[in-house]
Amino acid sequence: MEPEEPTAAQPGSPEEAPLATAPPETPSTHSRLADAGLATLLVAGYVSPLLALLIGFVSSGSTGLALSLALVGLVGAVWVVVWLYRNIRRRGRGPALGWVEVLVLVILPAWGLAYNHMAKESCQVLECEQNSALFRPLAEPEVFGLLAFHAVTALAYVASRRRPQALQPALAELSVHASLLSGMVIHALLAVHFGKWVLAGVAFPPAFLPCLSPVLTLILYGAELRHRLRLRGADARSVAQAQPLAVYREVPAQSFLPQRIHRPTLLRALAVSPALLGLHAVLQAVWLGQSSGALQVFTRTCDYTLSRLPVEVIPGSCHYLCTVAARGHSWLVRPLRMGRRGGVPIVVNRQLAVANAFEDLLHERWPRFGRLARRTYDLLARPICNHLRPAWVSDIVYLVMKPAEWAFYLALVLLDPRSPEARIDRMYR
């Protein structure tokens, strides 16, 4: 009896089904959000500072032109973000990620170092400036040792990106993993130390993007460390699969199995990274001549999370926009009387009294919002007020503040349960 010829397997039968098939790749929501964040970061890092400088230059001559340019620049920035996003989705993240790495590891630290040097070194501040003073977040010269440590970890990151295969000798591979871990520890400390300014980097990227540098570096280092540990895990599995097995049937490798990190390599890196941090501390101590030199870059500052120096508030004369406006020509600003603020005599006109009465109403009825409004004003407008000296500049400020004065008075009429005029009259008495 002749054997039967094998019949063709029916579609979907177990005989035809492959042993291992990779699931189809479809763009996930997480992937789309990551690409959108990548495009936004590139525009914020490279385009926004140039646009801010251009607007600042134009605003010195024409405020209206500066506002128009800011609006056009905002629309243009949104368009560039959309264009970059589509380009990344079409061509991949490779080129864009390279520009992000240069921005995060080189440009933002240099930019932040310049900000750090320009900030207020002394912890003494005038009473009216305590909400707007920008203190130095990292002590100098200790910060230069921290910058050198960042350069070492950034070099390890570049080596890991350029050489994804295991480095020889094994000590070089271990050094890369330990350096990435140490860099993550340092930048996590920086992010905690900056505190609220990290949120400022999210809200106002053209001005405060360097405050996000530790968080962005932490993400880059963490992603690269995870990727490299997975590669070492794949290498270890390949070696194990290459060993001869005494089995009846060898099953093909399952290509869609989730990748796992190589735990022995991670444990060795966790053991070595404290030694790298300790070596940095020793070098800082030798250089500065103080045993706590590595910590003083954080502690020898004021008004930050890890700061140890107190802020010393001293009395002094300060000026605000309406106070500046009241110093204009009398035929325009119409001064009413002399008042006192903080023991210092000031000129009081109706605009100044109305503005202060509105603030007094906010503190009385909505104290939290009043404090927030005061901090925001002190941060944004307060630093420029002392530079407005000539009388004709005060006249311009007075005219610009007129719509605000009318809005403040309308709010007093609608919201003040008592007489608005009585509240206005008692200001600065």
TrEMBL record:
* Domain DUF6688 stretches: 101-309, 319-428
Where are its TM segments located?
Answer: 38-59, 65-85, 97-115, 143-159, 171-191, 197-223, 266-287
Annotated keywords: Membrane, Transmembrane, Transmembrane helix
User: Where do Low complexity bias regions lie?
Assistant: 13-29
Specify where the region named Disordered lies, as residue ranges: 1-30
Q: Which InterPro entries match?
A: DUF6688_C (IPR056491), DUF6688_N (IPR046510)
- Listed Pfam families: DUF6688 (PF20394), DUF6688_C (PF23543)
Organism's domain of life?
Bacteria
Q: What is this protein called?
A: Uncharacterized protein
What species is given as this protein's source?
Answer: Polyangium spumosum
